[in-house]
């Protein structure tokens, strides 16, 4: 979402050559042990071959870079906790492990390596892919207790398999959205940039799983993080294969050679993920009846509180999307003003050189010095805008992250709707079966001695009825389980959203206030220096 171009750490990088910066050298004093600039530090300003040094009590140009009154909150509470927002992908840091008495699971993704795909193809060359070193440290008993550390190599396909298995096993849970395959980006981006972007995305995704109170204890995640070699999780069968199997089975179901009733074991899984096309058709028909048939289903969603929360989630998503767009506009505006301020400073530098080189009067030299002060303040303000923008991206990017959370919430809602549709379909099938049995029994009773063929059909339908009742019972239990998962997950998401948004707002506001104070000090000092014009004029 919010991306910020790196325009360098020095004002000279703002579309200017090093020669343009010769007359603007800012010697910043080293910070003292408490993070404040040393009071005895001095500032040197080169003036055409000569150096004028002034103490910090007089003309200390670097005084504007000293942390303002918000410094502790900005640079300690938020920035230092994330190691300045940087992660070394080649050498994971273990310095920030939580205390041993608290349960933790920390994951690092690093060291991407290119490998060749092993195939039986006779065509030389083959395809290649990247694997990533995944390092895990934890004290959780599921992983062996305190001091446990594991390293495995995984490819992106393994992450897809993990995501699919979690979605199947934890229906109704708000499962973090895995990174996209990004086929298009891999073709238009530099390969190194694409690999690094994917590494960072995988690290963020796995650590989201690691803090989920339920998923972090899952057997699927443990196997992914611990077992070396081939991932011991069954891969998803692609949609084409499932549809092909279902197409082969369908004629036999229609002719009665194969069971045409939902299997008890499959009732707890969504129809669209299975190979039973007949069940898919039945649930599709039930869905159409629900929406357009004008007949109220036998089983409906009766949780009014859930329906209200679902509507609020949809409204929240819309507002969050708009807010995310505005945050992106703010980042772009701050970036533009920072670049423009740097360009302004460098333009004053060039004008200063012109004034100085052709100076014939003392007033020209004085004017050139004052313009150089303006240039110094502008370039420093440009740097401050870049620092502020980095902090803005860091904090407001939480908005974009929560758009992903909303996608996960809607996926959990879809699990609930799918389970309810299965219950509704099975309920309709039971009514239909019971009606057919009653009709056959009524017809058979009118025939003296009974109708053996009808009696056999009745027995078959009763057996099907029993299987369908068991399947419905299983589907109802699954539906109730998903409902409970939805309820507990919504409570968890609400708690985390409160904490995350409070941290985001606090960080954003304090950084805006802190950097605004720095910039105000810069221009205030400059105003005091240039006020001599007015005094001299009077």
Q: Gist?
A:
This protein has 538 residues and is mostly helical. The chain has helices at residues 71-79, 156-169, 183-188, 191-211, 219-226, 239-255, 277-292, 304-357, 362-445, 452-530, 532-537, and strands at 42-47, 50-55, 105-116, 128-138, 148-155.
Description:
- The protein contains eleven helices and five strands.
- The protein has about 550 residues and is mostly helical.
- Helix content is about 60%, strand content about 10%.
- A hairpin with a 2-residue loop joins β1 and β2 (about 50-55).
- It has a three-stranded antiparallel sheet with strand order 3-4-5. Strands 1-2 form a two-stranded antiparallel ribbon.
- Among the domains are: about 105-120 and about 125-235, PX Domain (2-Layer Sandwich), CATH 3.30.1520.10; about 305-535, Arfaptin homology (AH) domain/BAR domain (Substrate Binding Domain Of Dnak, Chain:A, Domain 2, Up-down Bundle), CATH 1.20.1270.
- Mean pLDDT is about 75; it is low at about 5-85 and about 255-260.
- The radius of gyration is 34 Å and the shape is elongated.
Per-chain topology:
Blueprint: E1 42-47, E2 50-55, H1 71-79, E3 105-116, E4 128-138, E5 148-155, H2 156-169, H3 183-188, H4 191-211, H5 219-226, H6 239-255, H7 277-292, H8 304-357, H9 362-445, H10 452-530, H11 532-537
Antiparallel strand pairs: 1-2, 3-4, 4-5
Helix pairs in contact: 1-10, 7-9, 8-9, 9-10
Key terms:
8% strand, PX Domain, disordered N terminus, Substrate Binding Domain Of Dnak, Chain:A, Domain 2, three-stranded antiparallel sheet, elongated, mainly alpha, 5 strands, phosphatidylinositol binding, 538 residues, two-stranded antiparallel sheet
